């Protein structure tokens, strides 16, 4: 259930129960805001009804199947969160269906009010707690865990709404890895070579010729003599 934050400003204090009663929508303010953001995406979707409850929703070459009766979608967000995804909202708008009926009860304002119907008493400072001796003497250790075999996964599986990008190595130019883990030979620049004018090239300080320096100058020995 989504919890309502308690706002404090100086001596002002907002009781969560009173704040929940002041909400103007059937859903909580946080859930209503998510609905508004997802409804904006529906304007770019194409909805094709299969029957009264099943719809085919398309967007930029992708396709999802929504079942409003079972409250499911092939993106799996609808059935996992018990909260309509943007595809389900597009299908519900096609049937002029109230969005609130697609949300679970724990996203609704009345459920939030019932959650704070019983007063929550303060626990006080830990120094005033009365802890039985048999509880205080217990030592709670971390649970035993065993590392799974195999190499751990370095990345994560992207969701259906995320855009996948292809990574390319700047060393060899191939995709699928970066320059830190590249084992391929570096790519060779096959573009046209840039010719540098002679006046900008380095010259020998002894004979002032181009193509060598003073260490390899043929006139070095004659100059020393």
UniProtKB/TrEMBL annotation:
Q: Which InterPro entries match?
A: Znf_CCHC (IPR001878), Znf_CCHC_sf (IPR036875), Znf_PMZ (IPR006564), Znf_SWIM (IPR007527)
Q: Where is this region: Disordered?
A: 141-196
The protein's matches in PROSITE patterns, at most eight in alphabetical order, are given as: ZF_CCHC, ZF_SWIM
What Gene Ontology molecular-function terms does this entry list?
A: nucleic acid binding; zinc ion binding
Metal-binding recorded as keyword:
yes
The keyword Zinc is annotated on this UniProt entry: yes
User: Residue ranges of the SWIM-type domain?
Assistant: 64-96
What keywords were assigned to this record? Metal-binding, Zinc, Zinc-finger
Report the residue ranges that make up the CCHC-type domain in this protein. Answer: 169-184
Which Pfam family name is an example for this entry? Answer: SWIM
This chain belongs to the protein called SWIM-type domain-containing protein
Q: Which organism is it from?
A: Acer negundo
């Amino acid at each position: 259930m989504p919890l309502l934050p308690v706002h404090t400003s100086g001596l002002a204090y907002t009781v969560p129960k009173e704040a929940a009663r002041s909400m103007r929508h059937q859903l909580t303010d946080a859930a209503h805001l998510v609905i508004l953001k997802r409804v904006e995406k529906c304007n770019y979707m194409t909805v094709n009804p299969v029957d009264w409850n099943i719809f085919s929703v398309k967007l930029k070459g992708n396709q999802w199947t929504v079942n409003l009766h079972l409250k499911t979608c092939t993106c799996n967000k609808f059935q996992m969160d018990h909260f309509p995804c943007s595809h389900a909202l597009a299908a519900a708008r096609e049937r002029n269906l109230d969005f609130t009926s697609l949300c679970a009860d724990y996203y609704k304002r009345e459920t939030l009010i019932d959650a704070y119907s019983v007063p929550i008493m303060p626990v006080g400072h830990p120094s005033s707690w009365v802890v039985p001796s048999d509880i205080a003497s217990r030592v709670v250790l971390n649970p035993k865990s065993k590392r799974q075999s195999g190499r751990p996964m370095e990345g994560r599986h992207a969701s259906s709404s995320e855009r996948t990008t292809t990574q390319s190595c700047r060393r060899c130019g191939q995709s699928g890895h970066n320059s830190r883990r590249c084992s391929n030979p570096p790519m060779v620049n096959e573009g046209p070579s840039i010719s540098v004018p002679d006046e900008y090239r380095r010259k020998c300080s002894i004979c002032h010729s181009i193509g060598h320096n003073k260490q390899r100058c043929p006139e070095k020995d004659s100059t020393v003599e």
